[in-house]
Amino acid sequence: MWNVNFTAPQIVEARVLTRMPDALRLPRRSDWADANKPGQVVDCFLEGPSFDRAGNLYLTDIPHGRVFQVTPQGEWQLVAETGGWPNGIAIHRDGSLWVADYRRGLLRVDAASGAVETVLGHRNSESFKGLNDLSFDAQGNLYFTDQGQTGLHDPSGRVYRLRTDGRLDLLLSNVPSPNGIALDAHQRFLFVAATRANAVWRMPLLPDGSVSKAGAFQTFFGTSGPDGLALDANDSLVVAHASLGGAFVLDARGWTTHFVRSPAGGTVTNAAFRPGSRTLVLTESASGTVLQAELPAPGAALYSHT
User: Fold this and answer.
1) What is the mean pLDDT of the chain?
2) How many structural domains comprise the chain?
């Protein structure tokens, strides 16, 4: 993880932007907590930060199946209940929320009405292992990860692409816990956070749409691993790490230039830029807190905003 010239990354101190109000927390057992946080009562577990054109921030609460909106004024409101375990959110150009739901598959949520519809509940009649995260490319093709309970003991996690014409491509089927996913600005490389391998994979996207020569772009350590990913306008990659208390910023060579440090806990799971700005928001999931920090470059252009 150290740079080859042994320079330490610059520390960026994040600050609390907002936290889930106590009135919205649900301090009760859940099947998700029983499986993923045994013995704990998890009142919320926030992920999936995404911004719409009006500046509203959307978040998921995995164990309780909820999607929330946080207005620019900091007001929280429930948008939808998916009936599953919603994780990543990607916003379509038409304003709809596309949600990777561990139990229900790929969903589309109408932010105004809260209506939830299933886009993909299975592949060739076989259930997904458990969808986790997703990202649109510049043309509107959707890349998403199928993580389930995979890991080094079972490196069979999958990465898919849903084309705009409805075709579904299986790009990878050997990832130990595929999680965050992102494409570079020129759509030439695909990045996948392989959480249980504690690494970020990088692979070329070939002209025929396939991937090749997947390799470890950067490797980490810790009790968990890299989670959500975000790109800035200079093709630096922000990597939220779910057990190291912050997010790493990697330049195009994989060197760590900055570390965004959480003031509110170590479970930093997702990152997203406020569109058109250098402001990065992060979810500290264990405390139900959203963090904010300023980085040197603005975020990359999003399909939802172009």
Assistant:
1) 96
2) 1
